[in-house]
Amino acid sequence: MALYLIAFNDEWVPELTLEDLRERGASGRAVIEEMTAAGVFVFSDGGLDASTAICSVDPASGSPVFTDGPFTETKEHLGGFAVVDVPDDAQARYWAGRIAVAVGWPQEVHRFPHRTLNAER
């Protein structure tokens, strides 16, 4: 088994009404329930954007320095994610596809390499 991150960029979410967001949220939660029943669900969360940043951490001095900004210049923000524990890339793609269709916007799939490397040893 390997851990995969299925995530989307907040910029990929189209302009939606509050009702549309509720409907897509319900569809997404239904897929999470399916992943839970299949035993592959680890964790998910969402609603992240520029407004959720709480601090920046600069390690340049050898110790962490926490500030309320400036934040890294970026147009992209993690909008939400799910972590699944599945046997292979095909299963990760399957669940990412289910989420993408349920919510109606693109998803990315990333494999956490340390988990795969440890399983091979």
TrEMBL record:
Residue intervals of the YCII-related domain: 19-99
Pfam family, one: YCII
Lineage top rank: taxon: Bacteria
UniProt family annotation: Belongs to the YciI family.
Name this protein carries in UniProt: YCII-related domain-containing protein
UniProt organism field: Trebonia kvetii
